[in-house]
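note to self: the first set is below, dont mix up w the second
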Amino acid sequence: MNKIDYLTWLLTILSFIGVILNIQKKRAGFAVWFFTNISWAVIDFKVGLPAQGTTFIIFMLAAVYGWFSWGKK
């Protein structure tokens, strides 16, 4: 496996951790998602997948919204 393979596996695991944190109603899940989504977007644009990269940017914006929305409660 090369470095990008290790990175994508790490991002996959972290993304799942973000899901678990959100299921547990922990705001930190949005911070994890912010990091993983922006990382996935960078990877996608680098490998020539602009539509998927754009999707992850939108997901990153949703994570920011979730962070602030949950912070008001």
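second set (the one i keep forgetting abt)
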Amino acid sequence: QLDHLRTGSPEEKQRAAFMLRMFASEHAENQAAIARAGAIAPLIALLQEGSPALREEAARALWNLARNREEINMSNQQAIGRAGAIRPLVSLLEDEVPRVRIVAAAVLNDLATDNMENQVAVAKAGAIGPLVRLLQDEEAPAVVMAASLLKSLAAGSGEGDVDVAMALAGAVPPLVALLRADSLLAQEQAASALGVLAGYSPAIQEAIARAGAIDALVERLRGDLMRGTTALALRNLAAGSPSNQEAIVRAGAIAPLVQLLEDGMPGVREEAACALWNLAMDNSDNQVAIVRSGAAIPLIALLKGDAQEQATLTLMSLDANK
């Protein structure tokens, strides 16, 4: 297969990439063997071929090399990034074929997951602008992948990178619009990305609020899904921002956050407690409102559970009003 991958006709190259994709699919031993055999570099070269079908097949093969069923193949993730795949994959984010754009975003998303080196490389390769445009794509999978990857890039980039900060700021309006998308998965990825972006810099935090995210997030807080993701986003929007603290309370967030303190999911309880903590911090009006909402009893109950630290900090912030 490798000879065909390197020197075959376009049809032979596509067939070889397809076979490698199949061999690699959810099979860690095959993934390792294919990487050892030297398949990564020729697959990367195929990302720049003239045939859209060949570009897509090469990207899909790299995708399968980088991922097992529900976890990343960390060794191949690193090898693919260091072999030079990131820049051509970023170029494919603007391919004329929608499927190619989606697959490129998916591969980059897996390459950037929990990998700071790749996150920085993807941002430096100029991915943020194309990803912002993908947020407005007609294909729901493209939107979901773009939002997820933007979240990873925000998490991996430092606030001091002015170019990255400016590019990320451009993602705010389309992400806020996605909070009301038809796709629940797109809504959740948008809320998650906005939560990370809110923690990136005070300027982006304020931009998210100005774009109308707070009301939309509080609406989602009252729903049956994505409660933890939404609570995290509100927590980061409230952090250190008196104007956002007030806006979140005006939007009616306290009552649903207090209800989430008794949610069946531990992570949701923790995020709700943290959100209330940030709303109460140095804000006596919010402290009074949270106490009056009945938060004390469920917070005290959390002192015996997995959210003990978060509950303690929130109770301490409420006690500051006494």
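remember for set 2: The chain has a mean pLDDT of 92.
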